[in-house]
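User: Run a structure prediction on this.
Assistant: Running it now.
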Amino acid sequence: MKHLYIPFILYLLFVPFVINAQNLEEIGVKKGAKLSGSVNLNAVGYAAKSIEARRDPFNWFLSGNLNVNLFGYNAPLSFSYSNAGGNFTQPFNQFSFAPQYKWVKTYIGYSSMTFSPYTLAGYTFLGGGVEVTPDKWKIAAMYGRLKKAVSYNLQDSTQYTEASYKRMGYGFKVGYDNNGNTVTVSLFQAKDDINSLPFVLPESQITPQQNIAVSLGGHVKVTSALFIEGEYGLSALNTDIRKNKESIDTVAIANHNLIQGLLPQNSTQRYYDAFNGSVGYQGSWYKLQVKYERIAPEYTTLGAYYFNNDMRNITIVPAVQLFQNKLTLSANVGLQQNNLDKTRNATTKRVVGALNATYAPNENWNFAGNYSNFSSYTNMRPQLDPYYKNTLDTLNYYQVTQTSSGTATYSFGDKNQRQSIMLMGSYQRANTHAGYAEGNDLSDFYTGNVAYSYSLAPKSLTLATAFNYYLSNASTVNSLYWGPTLSVTKGLLAKTLRSSLASSFNKTTANGASSGPVWNNRLSLSYSPKKAGGEKQAGRHNAMLGINRMQKFAGTDTGTSNTTASKKYTEWTINSSYTYSF
């Protein structure tokens, strides 16, 4: 398979020269064909002195996209390739091809599609897909490989968990939209091939699975301002398809689903459901929406990489715009709870609250601020006897996290000289109180930043300076981080070469002991030549070179095992890239 990339990459590398020689844009005007896209090559080098290297010494990445438009027919093609691809068990080097004509779009190669958050939600597959949107209909379908088979590495037992069965899947979505009133149904199925692995190690604990997930959703406009929407999802998961029904002992399963008792379950077959709904009203200067979501414990779909489950959320989301839209206020307040089936030893209830505000009285001033308060209450029963009701032997765990931040920006000057001053600050407090213990576990975090920039447009020159401050007061560690930053940006060669030099010096202390100052210097150059043939020229080049030197000075030796904090060392990172767009 790797050999197939070679002619493909060579073709893309020679595309720029073919374009310049044949002038395809003029051909497109005459014959209805247009070619566009870009190819990017990026290389990263790394070296360290006085410490062990913390990353690979050299990596390169090749990526690109190509689109052919022939009389309205679009055929985009994209790919990515890297020398780091061999370090991944699942495919890292990928290509995709997505031709489109009017309301028909197809997917070929490595693609991702989304039908519903409860069925297929952005999972990458190797295969084919199609989307058609005739008139009021929206129809989509896919089929392909979700996972490739990965055999066990008998030389390294730590990689046993990386073994996997080959997994194939298919699905479809059908939706109908009538002036904002919609209904959508989707289905997704995935199944592992039990014959894709020559053998299975019992200690690896991987099993071949099968999943069928369906969803039904809709959106109804009651009036021009009032709407109701919702979606229900059901997922059936077999965690081990090697076992047949005759060999399975039916057991009591505590799945707290809305359809509990309607579908049969056994030791490997599970049924989960999820639901979300909302009611909203959109006014001329305000909006109010009430949301509800419930996801059953252990809800799983093989069409998503990760899924939050075992939770119930009730949220109110208001928003207003005042003073001719100069002031915007929005909030998010709700309740969240887990342990829906009452099988956990702990039940957590959270109060979620957030307030955001932005204010722009004129073109010079801009203010923004937000505040959030996340509170959680956990009731833990004794693990030895979950039915024991002695309140003195029950742990009540209460945690509050408060975060507030604000930004003020003042800009002044004219089109030739522009200056700006920005102030930013944030504060976060985490307060934990456990049971009947005396005292609270407090953690405070302070962040401050002041920045100034001066731009001289005729000279293509920008000067900027900033000062950063960070303080953390926790129960066991108090740390302080502060320092200035200075940068200069200058355009050269008729603004085709953009150069930038930045330097920052920061000091860090932990519990009063210095961790060693850090001096960071970076030089970057970016070159983008002007189009010699005017706007009609098809090709454009962009080259970038960045050199970063980070020097850490010796800190205070506290006698701990972490000697890196007190050690002096230097790291170099060089990043270069070239992009050709056409």
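The chain has a mean pLDDT of 82.
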